[in-house]
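In the current project phase, our protein records have gained a structure token line. A sample record follows, to show the layout:
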Amino acid sequence: MLEYLSIGQIINTHGLRGEVKVYPLTDDMSRFEKLEEVYIAENNELVKHEVERIKLLKSTVAVKLKGIDSEEAANKLRNSYIKVDRKSAVKLPKDTYFICDLIDSEVYDEKGRLLGTVKDVLQTGSNDVYVVQSADMEILIPALKDVVKVIDLENQKIIIETPEGLI
């Protein structure tokens, strides 16, 4: 499992005093308000930044990082991902998973046949959909309790009950 989790991507600067505009990769933007420190990859190295303030905008978040005090400095971080240490990440409710933990999991049907590997998770609003790549096709699997029977993150294995007509 990844040691650091991406929680947002810096998409632009915000103002002239070093704030960055972040597109959140979480379903609950208010989680940003609890941040005290974040990590950003700079020159192929994760650099720790102290968070000075957070401002929730309509669909993005304005973040002020200590030491980033100009538009020019903030602009250098554009397109970077903001990460948090897994230990300080939000605790998820039961049967809820970080998308990065599902990626590359092998998916099996109820008879033990390998269907493929999770390559992406689509967030549709009503339920997530696992994008599973097999040797010759892409399978879209709804992440519903009636379909997904077992998620074993430790062994990167997912077992599903194949709905009629899925494959």
